Amino acid sequence: MNPEQPDHVQRTLADLDARLGRITAEVAEVRSGLAALGRQARPVQPDQPVQPLQPPHPAPGAPRPGPRPAYAQPPGPGRDSVWRAGAPQTGGPALGGYRPAGPVDGPHPQPGPAPAGPGWQRRTAQARPRRAPRFTAATVIAAIGGSVMLAGIAFLLVVAIQAGLFPPIARVVAAAVLALVLVGLGLWLQSRHEATPERPINPGALALVGTGLAAAMLDVIACTTLYQWIPVPAAYMFVGGLALAGMALAQRWSSGLLACLVSAGTMVLAPFISTGVELPVFLVILAIATAVLGAELGIAVRVVWSVFPAPVLAGYLTQTHLHDRGEQIALIVAALVFAAVGVGVAWVDSVRRRPAPENAALVVVPTAVPLLLLSGLVLLRPGWPVGVVLAAAYLTVAVLAGRRAHESGPVLLSAVSGVVGSALLFGAWVELGGREMTSLALTLSATGYLVAAGLWGRRWVDWVAGIGAAIALIVYLVVNEPFLALDERLAVRELTYWDVVAAFAVTVLAVAATWWASRRVPRQASRVVMAGAVVALLAFSVMVVAAGVVIGDLAGAARNGFLVAHLVVTVLWISCAAWLVLTPRPRLSDARRIGFVLGSLALAKLLFLDLATLPGLFRVLSFIAVGAVMLAVAVRYRRDTEPSGSGSPT
Question: Which of 86, 535, 606, 643 could bond 510 through an S-S bridge, CB–CB 3.0 to 4.6 Å?
């Protein structure tokens, strides 16, 4: 017998005993970890802090285990990785931080955050509630069924009248009873519905309640407009109360479908029941109730309450001559309130809510459409002050919202309100009265927008300024006809002091446009300034000719004023060209080039226009003045461009 064999057997037994102790300790540790995880599922009391998990010590007398052998840790994702994947991320003891790499009874490592392994991602995805689909087959069927039911109720109230099937009281009572039954049945059905994440609200209940409320409002409209059983103010209150109740229930159920059924169903079918002036007022009341309580229920609800009443109200405003004074006032008030609600809801959604809903400011556009017609109403003549006041209100909203340039919602609100206010302003000038006055107002407005665009730096202001400048220039060319300044007979007969003022305004507009465009495209500033200078000089020349005709007419010699003005224009052009060519160290790099262009234009005017238009003495003076200026420029230009050391030989 080998004497070393007993020692080898003892060492093997001791090793097995140590392994058994480690296994026992690890099993106890797993049990403690599972218990700790179970305690984490319940809220932890603040006065009972969670103690860190400590590994149990081996029993007294047992051999102290040594370091874990290398073969005790299996390679790859083993038990330890499974514990880390299933451990919680925060709060309480976590087994993911324990890596048994040292002695069992040694210091236990601190638990750390659980790494995001595949197992952890899988459990998180399973624990996250799945969003319910916005539209299901049951929702679509319920919406179609509710629409068909509403159409049937409208036919009951309208077709029965034409066919004489039921007396009026029977029709109204039948519609009211049906509306009550539908609403009650829908509420009862929802009370028995077991809410789930996929179906929090029963689609059938939505359809029944929405159909019933819309039917009740249609019944009230019929009682008011067809039978005159309910006074109009009381009917407005009834419809508003029913609409508020429907929107409150839609807000409670978080259902845009219910809001659309109540508002859209009534708005679409109400014109089949009533065609009186009360109809747009009913639609505006319904739109206000929907906007106040249903603005957060999705973009479809915004489209319904802002788009549907706008064409109806605008159509009635175009036919105000068919209504009396009281009805016209009702339509005007409805249009103003409708627009004010649109701006108010857009302001709250875009500026006050965090985060701002996308496209919430677009409701400003349809709600402002009826306002474009107010300036043309006979009751508001002259209507342009009303348009100016409304435009100022929208532009004020645009400026206030534009100060919050760091947020997307106010930026969109600023752009939309600014464009609407600009359209109202230009529409007001159209109703100003007088072609010349309208042209001048458009030019001044475009100049103001160009200055604001250059100072403020907002994209919508740039667009409005560019479009406004183009419109103002086109209107000026059509209304004032500046080409008359080229013909002596037409200029003497047609040009007035309005042409002087309009030409001066266009000159200022050209200067403002040049400054604005040079700031927007600094790389092309030289070309922009060149083009702007030519346009401004042309407009100023028209002003000089018109002023000469007006002054000459006051003196009894309008023709002589025309001739003197053209002489002044020719000298003015050549003088400006000489100044640009000879200016030392010009701020504009291409100033000399612009001077040569203006000089060429002055020479062309002298040869092709003055030679054919001016009589003998004026023609002589024009040629002498232009020749003298060009000779002076040639002498000075030669002296400035010659090298300082050059000279003629003696």
Answer: 535
